[in-house]
Design a protein that fits this description.
- It is an enzyme of class 1 (oxidoreductase).
- This protein has an 8-stranded mixed beta sheet, sandwiched between helices.
- The protein is built from 16 helices and 15 strands.
- Helices cover 38% and strands 14% of the residues.
- It has 2 domains: 209 residues, NAD(P)-binding Rossmann-like Domain (Rossmann fold), CATH 3.40.50.720; 164 residues, NAD(P)-binding Rossmann-like Domain (Rossmann fold, 3-Layer(aba) Sandwich), CATH 3.40.50.720.
- The mean pLDDT is 90.
- It is of the alpha/beta class and 404 residues long.
Length: 404
């Protein structure tokens, strides 16, 4: 198949469309796509192409006016795809039974949630509050978290997509803030002939770390990757032809590496849990002035002691003469690419719910959605959240089996 340059971003959804438009679903879902109101959130969960697929399968889609504006999707494109354009957030929550969004609902949106609403969004563990969880429980909302959706292959498909983008972007960000005009040391990441490259230290060896390492190597940087999972480190070494230097993430190695680092990328995380804090404040104090920390797991608490959440409008702060970039939603800065990525993963789940005949029926057979559920029938179903907030917990498998 000949692919024209301007068609490349459409290929994923075209392939998805051919596979999914077959017949109407058993149940028609009323799906609401509100405009994101969180600070600097520019992504949206569905593209017009995704809407057309859902519409073709018999579902109703309500899109709030200007919901896709920041990702360069117009209301007319959504309307042409078959969506009904709603002129306020109240209308979305009133008409839809399933709310599909990127960021967790804000306080204003929480007030609009009603019993039997289904919420499909990220949870942002690092910023999650007990009051938010309690509201979902009290309102008998069924809630799915992007961070928890895990298939039988043990992959977290939505998280993986965003981590691939985040890893690549993190190096691009680090290179930008090394420039003197941005307060950095005034050095190039890759160096030139006769001048050695900058040193990039990556904490963690997961998907974000892998894509960060690939991008940093592409720039020509010297790359160190640190993790306590030796199997991951071996995998990364082999995948990158041993062009990286690996070490266990212990105090001695991290301290030594950070003293020479020009860019540190925090990518250490535990799926479905808070990120481990690997870098202490004294380690940051010993770093070179004008070096850069990009903490990509700040939405899960961060893995650097001096990190605190920032925004796209004010993305950095200085601590101990080290530039800190700690924006929780890095993929939002490439909103169109990120929206296509979200859409291509989310649409099949929405179709699966309709094809199964509803959410309860789908949870029986769909492992990924069952894993993704964190509130169901007024019960908290994720043990990690129960431990975090000291709340009672019941497993989703038990609730389904007992037909509660």
């Amino acid at each position: 198949m000949d692919i024209k340059p301007l068609e490349t971003e459409q290929i994923g959804i075209q392939t998805l469309e051919k596979r999914l438009i077959e017949s109407e679903s058993k149940v028609s879902l009323k799906i609401g796509l509100p405009r994101e109101v969180s600070n600097d959130e520019r992504r949206v969960s569905l593209t017009p192409g995704g809407v057309s697929i859902l519409k073709a399968n018999g579902h109703e889609i309500f899109v709030e006016k200007k919901a896709g504006e920041e990702a360069n999707f117009t209301d007319q494109e959504y309307a042409d795809a078959g969506a009904e354009i709603a002129y306020g957030i109240d209308e979305i929550y009133r008409k839809a039974e399933m709310i599909v969004k990127v960021a967790p609902p804000c306080e204003e949106e929480l007030d609009l949630l009603e019993e039997s609403h289904i919420l499909f969004s990220a949870l942002h563990l690092g910023n999650a509050k007990e009051s938010f969880i309690n509201t979902l429980i009290e309102q008998s909302v069924t809630a799915f978290g992007f961070e928890f959706i895990q298939g039988e292959d043990k992959e977290f498909p939505i998280v993986r997509m965003m981590h691939e983008i985040t890893g690549s972007m993190a190096v691009q960000i680090g290179a930008h803030y090394l420039e003197k005009g941005e307060g950095g040391q005034g050095i190039m990441l890759g160096g030139i002939s006769g001048i050695p490259p900058a040193t990039v230290v990556i904490l963690g060896a997961g998907i974000t770390a892998e894509y960060a390492a690939r991008t940093a190597l592409g720039y020509g940087a010297q790359v160190f990757v640190m993790d306590n999972d030796l199997a991951r480190l071996r995998h990364l070494e082999n995948a990158l032809d041993r062009r990286i230097i690996t070490a266990t993430a212990n105090y001695q190695y991290i301290s030594s590496a950070l003293e020479h680092a020009d860019v540190v990328i925090g990518a250490a995380m535990q799926e479905g849990d808070r990120a481990p804090c690997l870098v202490t404040e004294p380690m940051v104090m010993n770093m070179k002035a004008g070096s850069v920390i990009v903490d990509t797991v700040i939405d899960q608490g961060g893995c650097v002691a001096t990190s605190r959440a920032t925004t796209h409008s004010k993305p950095t702060f200085l601590a101990h003469d080290v530039i800190h970039y700690c924006v929780p939603n890095i993929p939002s800065n490439v909103a169109r690419t990120a929206t296509y990525a979200l859409n291509n993963v989310i649409v099949p789940y929405l179709l699966a719910i309709g094809d199964a005949g509803g959410i309860e029926e789908c949870l029986w057979s769909n492992t990924a959605l069952r894993n993704g559920t964190y509130v169901y029938k007024k019960n908290l179903t994720k043990k990690s959240l129960a431990n975090l907030f000291n709340l009672p917990y019941r497993s989703i498998e038990m609730l389904i089996a007992s037909q509660i």
